[in-house]
Amino acid sequence: MQTPQVIASDLDGTLLGAEGRLSERTREALAAAREHGLAVVAVTARTPYGVERLSELIPLLDAAICANGAVFYDPAGRRTEVRHVIDPASARAVCAVLAESLPNGALAIETGEGIVSERRHYEGIVSDLSYWEFVDSAEAMLARVDTVVKIKIYDPGLHSEEMLRAVEGADLAALDMCHWGDFGMLDFNPPGVNKATGLAAWCAERGLGAEDVVAFGDMPNDVPMLAWAGRSYAVEGAHPEAAVAATDTAAANTADGVARVVEAILDRSRAAA
To answer: How far apart are CA 40 and CA 63, in angstroms?
Structure first.
């Protein structure tokens, strides 16, 4: 295996350990990788403000590809670039379809700078309200946003597989859809936008390809990235879809799985030098 040029990792459930924290071993492994000349890229469903909350991770990142590939974030310059959006007509049409197909679900729209959502359900799961605005209807939500980078729908009473069945066959304007396993949420990105397309674009702009990337993930939204990268790892306990898409398996996020693989990569590279 050639030494990769890019370490691309999902955050929650993959790179981050218990309670969403970065372990010291993982911090040291990423720092060593960058010292060795490798780029470290977070590829996440989070938007930039969600990445910024991880103050211990920011100095270790070369970039963050956010909102499942729709938004690029430069941690060093604290610059956000919205690359892809859902057009307003499609957003309105899809929200209407979702409201009809999943009547107990609550809708939310991510703008790249914050989230506007229906009040029900979300108030009970959001711990940091800094970037959230609650409204009382989908119509009020749509009226409040100018930019749509992602649509979410959450139903705490359903498994995401049940939600998928509920929207099967519906006209969803060709939006790129992903789910969250046993958590009752679906995400919708602009057509053809996902973690793989975002990471591939970032790499191409630097003359790099899939063969230069080692990727890590655990959830269905990681599947495109895991399938695209030259080498990929699903962490132990990953969703079955992610496990099938990856070329290898790493230890769980709570056991520093990413760090262990990165350490092994660096050891091989040093031995070959």
So the answer is: 7
Q: What is the DSSP letter of 273?
A: -
CATH code of domain 6-83+193-272: 3.40.50.1000
**CA 200/CA 181 separation, integer angstroms:** 25
Model confidence at 272, pLDDT cuts 50, 70, 90, reads: confident
d(CA 73, CA 200): 15
Determine the 3-state secondary structure of 43 from DSSP.
strand
Tokens of 97: 């379809």
DSSP character string of 136-160: SSHHHHHHH-S--SEEEEE-TTS-H
pTM here is: 0.94
**DSSP assignment, residue 54?**
-
What CATH number is given for 88-189 in this structure?
Answer: 3.30.1240.10
- Helix residue ranges, H only, 87-210: 88-101, 138-144, 160-167, 195-204
Structure tokens at 137: 């209807």
